[in-house]
What does this fold into?
Amino acid sequence: MKYDTFVELFPTMRILKKEPLAKYTNTETGGMADVLAFPKTVAEVKLLVNMANENGIPLTVLGNSSNLVVKDGGIRGLVIILTDMDQITVSGTKIMAQAGASLIETTERAYQAGLTHFEFAAGIPGSVGGAVFMNAGAYGGEICQVLTEVSVITRAGYVKTMVNEEMNFGYRHSQIQDDHDIILEATFILKEGNKHNIRETMDNFNFLRASKQPLEYPSCGSVFKRPEGYFAGKLIHDAGLQGYQVGGARISTKHAGFIVNVDGATATDYMDVIKHVQDTVWEKFNVKLETEVRIIGED
It folds into this structure.
């Protein structure tokens, strides 16, 4: 199916051809998408999924692309970015947020409503959909602790609702990763709290994040999962790898668990640094580091 056909079928949707994904990833790296679409409604997502299925078009769905490396060869077929689906609704102790909504903005809305238990996510720079997909967490909290249900569309084009118990949550894992469903909206159940205490906790977490993490550079966030019995950042630090650099990608001297884009890095630079870290940590400590960051696309 040609690009012009997408434009004809979706005249009100923003659709781009041969668009560099580096414009949309937090690492500021990544090759081109053949076709890039920004749906605003569930109906539009469903139509795009069905069209891709009917025409055998590869389909990739992205959120805020904060914990993601897109390879320099880009992504073939249709790429959907859900950031235009960003509505957040608060009803009592319940928050419903569309997949493209900012997780940070969602925690702010919780604070404004005097709702607690979402403070841990105050500074996590991703979308709600990405946070559910990865079971994002920080400072002792995880998405699985507050999510009650999630609306998804299957790759076959059917919309369904999954409750928390069906999500098979684990450390940086959800059932969505196995089923490849597309998250549309998440519902969180919180508790009434003291707004002063909520704000104080959020501000403290944001201070800790800013003081420990290299927020001044583009990055994909925490690169590696925490290996059982260890901390990835400490292993990398103890291996003497802080400051190691390939091209424009460098292991942060502020936090060893981050790889930052200091000078026009490519995705290949990132992947070369990741492999060097994995090989070195295995050689020195016999510990296998698995990536937390998603790596997608073509070489």
Q: What stands out?
A: The CA atoms of residues 36 and 232 lie 34 Å apart. The chain has a mean pLDDT of 95. The two ends are 23 Å apart (CA to CA).
